[in-house]
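Handout, section B. The chain below has 104 residues.
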Amino acid sequence: MKRLSTFIVLLAVAAAYISAAPIEDCKCKGKRLYGRVKIVDADADFDVRVVDASPDLDVKIVESFPDRCGRWQIVTSHEDFSIRFVTSFEDFTIRFVESFPGQR
């Protein structure tokens, strides 16, 4: 019985890592990771965790021209994609930066 419960826990952990959507060419799940971003509490396009080290994407908040990888303009409507901040089971991790945004 103990072996079965250990196996189930390991399977759940492996599934969490496998289900994480990788970032390739500054896209995740087919959506580009720059542009107008809306922060929501539910039904987000991406679940995002903010970290201090080893992020998948460095993000710079801009007021205009969010036209390159990692440049996000926070909006309340007409977004390109939406995000929800989570502490676990994220699609990808981000770190807020003042310069050199983009994929790591």
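Note. Residues 2-19 form the longest helix (18 residues). Compare this with the example in section A.
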